[in-house]
């Protein structure tokens, strides 16, 4: 079915894959489920993710980037996150929607810069572009926060599973159990082991944050888990060593996350927060270890 859609509706396929690549899944249906989850949480964020992925993908086409990379959705995911972040943080105004388009173009171009140099930066283009735009908006505008940003979710009936699923939801700024479930299912239909490792990563990060006496509401909302979910998905696999790499990356990630939150860095707070920076840093630290293991004959036995 994926192939049929790719052949009949190639641009739609690229846009949806771009959304699915937010959690490293090159899958049309993953992107569709992510989009539905966003619409459940907020119609504005659902529109933003489609507009941003479309803009990022169209930018890549206009600038004649590699067709295979475009087909994989590599120019849609950072753009998608920029779009959702801006609509999540600020009230709906024309300038915000214009910046969604501008930010999506910038994210796609920055993504291409790193792809051409074969530097794995994952969501860093989203982080950098959003930092710049949010800082400018805070300095040169009086646009108030959005209702979604100000709303305090009801956590009265939360349980362990709900808390872990929220780790998936918060990857795309959703504190909504139904959105989180759809995101989990979206990853699962593409890669069951990645989804299950992601759930494990969310559980481990929640446990570490809880025992580290972080604010319980933030832990339940998944604010200390979503970066760990992405780390777990990156290193998920069927080999023995993959489980160890997942655990190492998740622990490093949550420690960086806690450190950045507690440091209360003013520049970072004014730029909107750390976003997925803990994920990017932890993954870049563990990737050399993965390469070292694969090259070491003794350690490579763990991969069997």
UniProtKB/TrEMBL annotation:
This protein's name: Urea transporter
Gene3D superfamilies recorded: Ammonium transporter AmtB like domains (1.10.3430.10)
Keywords of this entry: Cell membrane, Membrane, Transmembrane, Transmembrane helix
One Pfam family of this chain: UT
InterPro entries named among the record's database cross-references: Ammonium/urea_transptr, Urea_transporter
Membrane topology designation: Multi-pass membrane protein
Segments traversing the membrane: 32-58, 70-88, 94-114, 121-140, 171-189, 219-237, 244-265, 271-289
Chief place where the protein resides: membrane
Family indicated by similarity: Belongs to the urea transporter family.
Superkingdom of the source species: Bacteria
Organism field: Flavobacterium hydatis
């Amino acid at each position: 079915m994926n192939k049929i859609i790719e052949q009949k509706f190639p641009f739609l396929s690229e846009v949806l894959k771009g959304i699915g690549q937010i959690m490293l899944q090159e899958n049309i249906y993953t992107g569709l489920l992510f989009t539905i989850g966003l619409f459940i949480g907020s119609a504005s964020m659902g529109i933003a993710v489609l507009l941003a992925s479309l803009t990022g993908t169209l930018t890549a086409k206009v600038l004649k980037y590699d067709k295979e990379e475009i087909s994989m959705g590599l120019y849609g995911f950072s753009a998608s996150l920029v779009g959702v972040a801006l609509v999540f943080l600020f009230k709906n105004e024309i300038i915000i929607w214009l910046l969604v388009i501008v930010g999506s173009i910038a994210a796609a171009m920055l993504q291409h810069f790193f792809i051409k140099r074969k530097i794995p930066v994952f969501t860093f283009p989203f982080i950098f572009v959003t930092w710049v735009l949010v800082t400018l908006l805070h300095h040169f505008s009086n646009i108030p926060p959005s209702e979604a940003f100000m709303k305090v979710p009801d956590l009265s009936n939360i349980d362990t599973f709900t808390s872990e699923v929220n780790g998936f939801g918060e990857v795309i700024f959703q504190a909504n159990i139904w959105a989180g479930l759809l995101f989990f299912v979206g990853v699962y239909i593409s890669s069951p082991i990645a989804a299950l490792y992601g759930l494990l990563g969310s559980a481990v990060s929640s446990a570490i944050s809880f025992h580290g006496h972080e604010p319980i509401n933030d832990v339940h909302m998944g604010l200390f888990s979503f970066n760990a979910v992405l780390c777990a998905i990156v290193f998920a696999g069927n080999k023995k060593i993959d489980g160890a790499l997942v655990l190492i990356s998740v622990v490093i990630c949550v420690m960086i996350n806690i450190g950045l939150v507690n440091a209360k860095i003013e520049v970072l707070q004014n730029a909107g927060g750390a976003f997925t920076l803990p994920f990017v840093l932890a993954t870049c630290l563990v990737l050399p270890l993965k390469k070292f293991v694969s090259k070491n004959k003794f350690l490579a036995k763990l991969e069997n």
